[in-house]
Write a structure and sequence with these properties.
Elements lengths: L1 E2 L7 H15 L13 E5 L5 E6 L8 H9 L7 E6 L11 H7 L4 E6 L9 H7 L3 E3 L4 H7 L1 H9 L3 E9 L17 H11 L4 E5 H7 L18 E5 L17 E4 L4 H10 L4 E4 L3 H9 L5 E7 L18 E10 L2 E9 L8
Parallel strand pairs: 1-6, 4-5, 5-6, 7-11, 7-12, 8-9, 8-11, 9-10
Antiparallel strand pairs: 2-3, 2-4, 12-14, 13-14
Amino acid sequence: MIDARIDPRYDRMYRAQMHRAIALACSEGAVRSSNPRVGCVILDQAGQVVGEGFHRGAGTAHAEVVALLEAGPRARGGTAVVSLEPCRHVGRTGPCTRALLEAGIARVVFAQSDPTEQARGGGRELAAAGVQVVGGVLESEAEQVNRAWTHWQVTGMPLVTAKCAMSVDGRVGGRSGEPIAITGPAARSWMHRYRAEVDAICIGTGTVRSDDPLLTARDMNGALLASQPLRVVIGERGVPTQARIRGPEAPTLFMSTRNFAEVLDELQVRQVQHLLVEGGPTLCTAFLRAGLVDEVLWWIAPSILGAGPPALGPLGDPLAVDVHSVDRIGEDVLVRGRLTRPQAPHES
């Protein structure tokens, strides 16, 4: 039986180690792939950390196996703290449940349950073998790390994130519609790192023609980061032959269509789990109106422009956002949240 409660004597320790496991899952070497990002901490019988590990991508050893190898015989009778429920299936590597049992682990504490048909149920399998299993510890934090992978597993479609950068009065360009820098250096650096974590970035042909973006992930010095997402250009207008987006810096997909469902279907075939919509107001509004946006990254810069194109066009019905974080990055404010069904207004 899987327990959702932690013994009060160990609550603080296990939560602290789960924070560490989640941090390991986000390590630099945890590459983006079709597999989830997972971290694991092994504690000996005295509660001391004796092994740590994280998953480096498809085909490599899972986090539990890496941590167990570091722990060696000290793992026997100890505890495994894992950010994702240990898998029970045989894929490119063996099941983590077997590795944990063979190592003599007495207790497993995990955060997120595995949503996949082939791998879920590892917790029940361990409990049936006599291991004490506690699930759901810092579950929401762990799910945030793998939100795109989880969305993909549950829906079979990419997670769609819409990004906007606007002034306090909701403007996204200059007085005549010309592109201008809205956010500051810290925000732009944050977004470039974020680009390196997604599978694809989408813009419209109008933005290509007006802004001529490179649409790559770069560091503060302009050098390309190691991971580059697929660049996706949507629209029926032609793309100039000299457009920078045609360059070799990253792969590019041109789709001469306005059917966004068709775009998502193509990206699903290409195993794209996370799509960032980073086009202008027209494209962002169209995705929102079509009901295809799952979450938003909304930047608010400390400026009032007084003129220029608005962040969005008319949407029809209002959309509710479940805000999960509001952060100040440099001089700018980043609001992040998931779209939810709007609540009916209360009668007064």
